[in-house]
Amino acid sequence: MVAHKQLQEKLGMWGLVVLLGLISSSCVRSEPQVPCYFIFGDSLVDNGNNNNIASLARADYQPYGIDFPGGPSGRFTNGLTTVDVISQLLGFEDLIPPYAGANGDQLLTGVNFASAAAGIREETGQQLGGRISFSGQLQNYQSAVQQMVSILGDEDSAANYLSKCIFTVGMGSNDYLNNYFMPAFYSSSRQYTPEQYSDVLINQYSDQLRTLYNYGARKVALIGVGQVGCSPNELAQRSPNGVSCVENINAAIQIFNQKLIALVDQFNALPGAHFTYINGYGIFEDILRNPGANGIKVTNRGCCGVGRNNGQVTCLPFQTPCENRAEYLFWDAFHPTEAANILIGKRSYSAQLSSDAYPMDLRHLAQV
After folding, report:
1. Is 228 strand, coil or helix?
2. What pLDDT tens digit does each residue of the chain (368 aa) get?
3. Based on C-alpha coordinates, what's the Rg of the chain?
4. Hey, is 94 helix, strand or coil?
5. Measured torsion, CA atoms of residues 118, 123, 125, 131, in degrees rounded to the nearest 10
6. Is the pTM of this model over 0.85?
7. 152-182 burial, b if ≥16 CB within 10 A, otherwise e?
8. What DSSP assignment string belongs to 96-125?
9. How many CA atoms lie within 13 A of 352 on its CB side?
């Protein structure tokens, strides 16, 4: 558990006001804003599901978790992930646990199914070894729902309960990073133009999300793919000056994100559905545009890594990371620092700009 006091220091005044509100309201009513929170995604939000998988995509070693209570947990950052921040802002006392090892009672408040290297496509990330694709995460969720039916007594009770919960789904990054833009391992970039590939992804994603809906999810936030072309790894490989983002990667991702917004509209035509889009790309772009406003000083290098931009090789076991971690946008070759995750998590929960979410942020999604 991360204590409220620890989080108050990390979230700054904005988060302090929100959390104090939650704490004061808990004196009267201790429940969070929703009964449960389920998380699907990749290494941006994995919190330990890959720890016992034969995979290169693991983060259960130092210095990962250097700023996290208890040390390395499987989170691919120095401290909190975006969904950790979101879970606290939603009023959950404990952080949402990984599905791996979760017990039946924990299912009632939600679990995290995310797996590093996972994608919408089954083959995505296979060069890294084991991972739980989005389809695999949905299979785990279906098993969890069956357990919840047993706990709650019948399917109608489970359906009613799940309809009040929040689901966040952040897939697609690896379908570009560890598939389309990795032609040495994957043929997708030779088979499809970026426009065609986005259609292939969206069609499969739509089918997968329909499964989620069919198994009770009604309040669903789709997290847009971020600026993968600005990560230290891509800057190290493809940016001439190590500063300018890789535009062909970002352009392909923007095509996908635009179709994700249209997908939200499609799902909201279904009975009881409240789908929303969180503009991870735009939020990240806004932070990059004026990093100093948020205390960020280094945007193109990993705090922990090897080679150009600290991004050619990601953070190695027991490597000494930078000391001024709160001033870095990226923790390693691919993943944001806790400082960046807090900024993104806060804006996902409560939009700072109208472009941060469509049609609503997570705070409003909890209320519908």
Report:
1. helix
2. 444 444 444 445 444 444 444 444 334 447 999 999 999 999 999 999 999 999 999 999 999 999 999 999 999 999 999 999 999 999 999 999 999 989 888 999 999 999 999 999 999 999 999 999 999 999 999 999 999 999 999 999 999 999 999 999 999 999 999 999 999 999 999 999 999 999 999 999 999 999 999 999 999 999 999 999 999 999 999 999 999 999 999 999 999 999 999 999 999 999 999 999 999 999 999 999 999 999 999 999 999 999 999 999 999 999 999 999 999 999 999 999 999 999 999 999 999 999 999 999 999 999 99
3. 19
4. coil
5. 50
6. yes
7. beeeeebbebbeebbbbbbbbbbbbbbbbbb
8. PPBSTT--HHHHTT--B---TT--SSTTTT
9. 14
Neighbour-count burial of 94, counting CB atoms closer than 10 A to its CB (0-12 exposed, 13-18 middle, 19+ buried): exposed
Q: How many CB atoms lie within 10 A of CB 1?
A: 10
Q: Are the beta carbons of 134 and 120 closer than 8 angstroms? A: yes
- The token pair at 340 is 């960046």
- DSSP class of residue 309 equals G
Q: Which residues are catalytic?
A: 43, 332, 335
